[in-house]
Amino acid sequence: MDASVGTFVGRSAEIDALIGALDVAAPSRPAATVCVVGPAGIGKTSLVGEAERHLTDTAEVVWTRCWDGPGTPSLWPWTQLLEQLAIDTGTHDIGRDRVAYFDRIADELRTRADRRPLVLVIDDVHWADPASLELLNFLARSPRPARLSVIATYREPEVSSGAIAQQIARIEREATVISLAGLTADQVAEVANADRQIALPADLVEQLHERSAGNPFFLGELLHTLGDHPTAASLPVTTGLRVAVENHLDLIDPEAKRMLEIAAVQGRVFDHRVAAVAGNLDEFEVLEMLVAADERGIVTPDGEQWRFEHALLGEVLLGGQSPHDVALHHSRTADGLEKIHGAGHLDYVESIANHLLAAGSLTAPDRLLDSALEAADHAGARLAWEDQSHHLATAVHALRSLGDPDPA
């Protein structure tokens, strides 16, 4: 069950894979280890909670959670599990005889599991201390028969580099790994309709799916903003959403975040070459930043361009900047489009005009006029009358800025 929206949908394949990997009914097999991974808010804990509901009659399930606060003792999650199970392993000095101590813990857990299959759940393993990860790996590698299973959940983007990446890789080699992706559009509709207890308009469901990318936490936050008469336009970015997205963005270095702030004015899909020009950055350095951001689940390649993993990332990046900075990025993005593609490139004349308009007073009126008229011609040629009207209105605005109070 997803805590944000109160409805557990989809994930039937993942539930079956998780319960099958645990195989609690097997009389004799090595301890099973299952890693449930994915970005923050994707439903890892909810999935395991739903699996627990299926296991209630066949196994004892005990939970703990890793803590990211300063001064957390070594082996903290394991200490919490052992206390819940009333298992006393005595005093220890893991620095002197770590293997013997780990083996003693493993024996106690196997003995407990002999009474009834035992499933240990360690949530938020991306915050685990090195010794806790070593013990998890020790149990995962043990060939001795046991009616014992361990489920570890963690945020994949946060274990993709550094020492923890090596430890997690060793654990995953011995484990069943279940990776969670976003809910599909149909699943988003099911959750949303159940939450609101009415069938929501199709365009609103489409917006919910687009902006949340199927992330259950983001979806729940968006649903909580809807009033009595929800529409696709009534989806503000809440404080909870903003904080969650900003925490995600904190996974990359400040220079990469600054580059993405510039890229965000292009929309959810952006050209890294244009962002490089707009930010006065080296193109290859921008690519290195994007590869790192891809590893953190923030962007992903989209043909020759790049795409934010979900629309909320771009919205929060833009919302955290001053209006002047956003206008400046629009102005420099227009310059970047002209430099990369040429000022008269038919595929980009309308985009250039829109960026120049969004740049406000940073765009010279005569440049805006020329660009808007060219964009209007292009829109008319493709029979896009509403777009043509928009560009002509921009041209009228530019003429008035040039001193013509009543342009014909």
Tell me about this structure.
- The structure is a single chain.
- This protein is 54% helix and 10% strand.
- The strands form 2 sheets. It has a 5-stranded parallel beta sheet with strand order 2-3-4-1-5, with helices on both faces. A 3-stranded antiparallel beta sheet has the order 6-8-7.
- It is elongated and about 90 Å long.
- The longest helix has 22 residues, at 94-115.
- The protein has helices at 12-22, 44-55, 76-84, 94-115, 130-141, 163-173, 185-196, 202-212, 216-224, 239-249, 254-263, 272-278, 283-295, 311-319, 323-341, 349-358, 365-381, 385-401, and strands spanning 32-38, 60-65, 118-123, 148-155, 176-179, 269-270, 299-302, 305-308.
- A hairpin with a 2-residue loop joins strand 7 and strand 8 (305-308).
- The chain is an alpha/beta fold and 408 residues long.
Briefly say what this structure is.
The chain has 408 residues and is an alpha/beta fold. The protein is built from 18 helices and eight strands. Helix 8 (202-212) packs across helix 9 and helix 15 (323-341) packs antiparallel against helix 16 (349-358).
Features:
408 residues; alpha/beta; five-stranded parallel sheet; three-stranded antiparallel sheet; 8 strands; 10% strand; elongated
Task: Please render the helix and strand layout as text.
Blueprint: H1 12-22, E1 32-38, H2 44-55, E2 60-65, H3 76-84, H4 94-115, E3 118-123, H5 130-141, E4 148-155, H6 163-173, E5 176-179, H7 185-196, H8 202-212, H9 216-224, H10 239-249, H11 254-263, E6 269-270, H12 272-278, H13 283-295, E7 299-302, E8 305-308, H14 311-319, H15 323-341, H16 349-358, H17 365-381, H18 385-401
Parallel strand pairs: 1-4, 1-5, 2-3, 3-4
Antiparallel strand pairs: 6-8, 7-8
Helix pairs in contact: 1-2, 5-6, 7-8, 7-9, 8-9, 10-14, 11-12, 12-13, 12-15, 15-16, 16-17, 17-18
